[in-house]
Amino acid sequence: MSETNTPAPEAAEAHRYTAAMAADIEARWQDVWDAQGTYEAPNPTGDLAGDPAVVARPKKFIMDMFPYPSGAGLHVGHPLGYIATDVYARHQRMTGHNVLHTLGFDAFGLPAEQYAVQTGTHPRVSTEANIENMKIQLRRLGLGHDKRRSFATIDPDYYKWTQWIFLQIYNSWYDADAKKARPISELVAAFEDGSREVPGGRAWGGLSAAERADVLNGFRLAYSSDAPVNWCPGLGTVLANEEVTADGRSERGNFPVFKSKLSQWNMRITAYADRLLDDLDALDWPEAIKLQQRNWIGRSEGARVDFALGDEAITVFTTRPDTLFGATYMVLAPEHPLVEKFIPAAWPEGTHDVWTGGHATPAEAVTAYRKQAASKSDVERQAEAKDKTGVFTGEYAINPVSGDKVPVFIADYVLMGYGTGAIMAVPAHDSRDFEFARAFELPMRCVVQPSDGRGTDPAEWDDAFASYDAKLVNSTGEGISLDGLGVVEAKAAITEWLAERGIGEGTVNFRLRDWLFSRQRYWGEPFPIVYDEDGVAHSLPESMLPLELPEVEDYSPRTFEPDDADSQPETPLSRKADWVNVELDLGDGVKSYRRETNTMPNWAGSCWYELRYLDPNNASALVDPEIEQYWMGPREGAPHGGVDLYVGGAEHAVLHLLYARFWSKVLFDLGHVSSAEPFHKLFNQGMIQAYAYTDERGVYVPAAEVEERDGAYFYEGKQVKREHGKMGKSLKNAVTPDEICEEYGADTLRLYEMAMGPLDVSRPWDTRAVVGQYRLLQRLWRNIVDEETGAVTVVDAEPAEDTLRALHKAIDGAGADLAGLRFNTAIAKITELNNTLTKAGRPLERSVAERLVLLVAPLAPHIAEELWHRLGHTDSVVHQDFPVADPAYVVDETVTCVVQVKGKVKARLEVPPTITDADLEQLAVTDAGVVAALGGAEIRKVIVRAPKLVNIVI
Fold this sequence. Notes:
alpha+beta, Isoleucyl-tRNA Synthetase, Domain 1, Isoleucyl-tRNA Synthetase, domain 2, six-stranded mixed sheet, four-stranded parallel sheet, 33 strands, 33% helix
């Protein structure tokens, strides 16, 4: 039969696999699967408990990263990961696993709120409509999700537990000695009985309620603080560091971001820095993702050193305390809190003009420079190529080893968010300090002996000299001499000397900063926190959860001119006075309180959603311990527990994955879960790309309306330029899955997306190539069903040996590929088998046909289910055993052995794959062609590599 898309004769159309037939088959079986609960995974206990025999199987928990329900719906790039996890989940079911696979929706966030601001539509209304549309699109793909377990983060029954987890974190502190979180009540008890000293030395009983709250705020894992934050006036909210682009603008909206000091909620994720770093080793994650997390956490060992400045001390962290004698000036971050404390009224006598920035007083200079620095991103401030800027504060600190006075500057290349926000500058041995010293005419002192012959006078150098192998010089002071020591020995000696004098100590520093957890938005989880008349924070009791969002008239935070760095946030909730001001009884009588009017960031709901999938209807606990232990507990190969397979984009390497790991560890420490890690195995799928086209103005035009003529591209008669990019609405190149399903069917779309290339690499979309997988399914159909009559054509006979060999090789190869997420090569092997069976030109044997259908079932489940039932079965193909290859048919009957004489091929022998070295040597040396090539010469050596190579040396 023709392989073109020409319609078959009308009489045969009813039995031919067409898009119309595919649509009928797919819709019908989706209805059956839903009605019969085909994909429901039983729990060991609780309301989702099921067949004990299924629970007794090995379990497999498979997850996709949370989708956000966009109003634009899906394009064909979105389902790539969802189809992949579905194929894998189906294969795991068929290999004897109890598989939990479901999908929820991460539904809080800025897009719905922005839509609400523009249209007046409540974010919940538009979000729920988007979710329903997305569910329809996903269902059409035949995804085998346990729909009983699905939810959205905006469901009050869900975010009740998000708020509950926040309170667990808020009411905990990190015990550095025990290396775990503990209830804050235990810390209070220790303060009360005197077993732990209260910071400041006062008795706990002598502190007021507000003073006690301030003390505890310094320990809580969720705490409020007045700290420099990323303030975005154009959005009217603060942003986490990770939400600010490299050029200092908001990821959403591309507005300028400024440093501003505001009172905000934070998560003390830094307390877990060591564990977050160390536990990466046991996770089955891509090394590139582990490296990104290691770099973000940024662990470094060094020393803390105090430089005296009057009655104050400037504390620095340095990884090179051995170079302390070379510190000739200091630099503070412009935001450093000490700056405001010691600025003198006038410039000291002898101040260099270049140090003042042209300002009459230190106060003017510092104020102007701080404003300038606030407009730059951290990346901009640390750019290696930029000119070094700064200003003298007008004060000098004392170098603790040399006793020298060193000028104190502020400069934007020092960040408050790293270390202590202050550095000792050693310009002779640090390139940034060298450039700054040259720009500001500051002294340099060589303390590490150059090994490149440049001498020890930095004034003659073109750049700093940095080395970890050289010897120390010019480093002798009172009670300490590092001269002649190597770097390692010198670091140890100076660290000990500092500790003995109480002006420093060896320590570890991290790049990781605490997680800014407040947003000045409406569409997010409300904080379960109220404040009393003294401003002391109180947590709501569990009985008052969930604290639901109130209805408001205006969904937008107050926004400002994008460049208005001096503006202050005003949240939508703060305008709802009857919600903000409440009378509550928190256990000591009815009192007046004020609610927190910030909301949680959109990351909150995705920090723990894997746990809700396990026990979605539990109203009395976060998750039943037995259920959590069953699906996520520690096991062989996964000492920290976690989801068996988590698939999603690499763009979440730091944000979501790091935050979720932190929450898991706190819940683990407090005994709520048995898994200290949320996701044991991580797989990053690639991206589906598509051609986009721009006109002469650089404006994107609809890709679907572009014509190709003689290698050029035209839109409405005018030539346009083609480029390769991400598929999406903005580039006008999106192709929806609905379009492909209409033209070919969902099974074809599934096969094409899996066959395009390795799952972890990006690949270009080509609608014209989809027909190849459509034809595969048509050939599969014709191999089992007569297109003229609709009758099944299989025969009850024993397959020929060549058929068995082709079948079992495909089973062996495709099965291994499906288990290894190599779906493209699995499809290639199945295609090869199907083509072989087609070319044989004879009816398929029943045993062959059935195993062929089972091979296809994970990838194209609808047609497989239809054919399985047409073959006479009444139970679903979904729960059948995946075929097992017979090793006898997998091994080739013979292999070709090459025989070389003097490095040249003289014979090719067909031999059994199990032939021994001795037998193969005997065959080779007695072969007529080899004997002729030898010509009677003496054989010096025979090298045998059975079964494929014999090399004869004469």
